[in-house]
Amino acid sequence: MSAVGRMLLNGKPASADDLRHLIANNVGHFTSMRVVDGCTRGLDFHLERLARSTREIFGSELDVAALRAFLAAAVNGEGGALSVRINIFSRAYDRANPAKPVPADVLVMVNSASEASIAPLRVKSFVYERDAPHLKHVGTFPLFHYRKLAQQAGFDDALFVDRNGNVSEGSVWNIGFFDGDGVVWPEAPQLEGVSKQLLIAGLTKRGIRTESRSLWLASVRHLRAAFFTNSAQAVRPIARIDDIEIPLDPNCYELLNACYDSNPMQPL
User: Fold this and answer.
1) pTM beyond 0.85
2) How many C-beta neighbours within 10 Å does residue 111 have?
């Protein structure tokens, strides 16, 4: 039986009643990963994110060993590429007393992996700052709302800048830039995505400079290349930000993909 479509709550098939708590409260966090033949890159980063966020949101410790067992059971040795999402919520969560520590529930969902696209993105900027941007929380409505607005304006996706005009992140992705010698990341509140962390690790191993600095939107026109990165696709070119045309640099993207691929696949 295929793993695609499987939903396990704490290692057992999830019922409609189980999911009622998730829908009614909509409080929690998640991580998503691309799994190939039962392995993924950056598993340690995913697990660290989940444990840290559970501690902050629910005031409890996540049983990481149990979570790994739930994850392996959901995939169940299936080969090929899969998209796996792990949602952490709590059926004991009390909206009247959100400061009360509660145990975490683990929902693992398995879907088919989407096909990566190499088509360069055109993105439209919006002034928007996510609440608790360091958390990959389930409050995603604004992210897709701004993506919709961008598409209605003739672009592919949304890029966020803060109230001071500094670039921060994309709707559900991080943005990076190549300045000719190394990679520059925006220095602004944002989610530190796992793919971004893997790229930094791969670049560092190759001795390629990476740095974070404040980037005003107008300043990006002076950079050599821009790219998108998230769990679905390690590197995708960005060709335009608002009316700013960004050069396309195939050598840069090839290097970035090689750095990403230098990170080992880890078994679930």
Assistant:
1) yes
2) 15
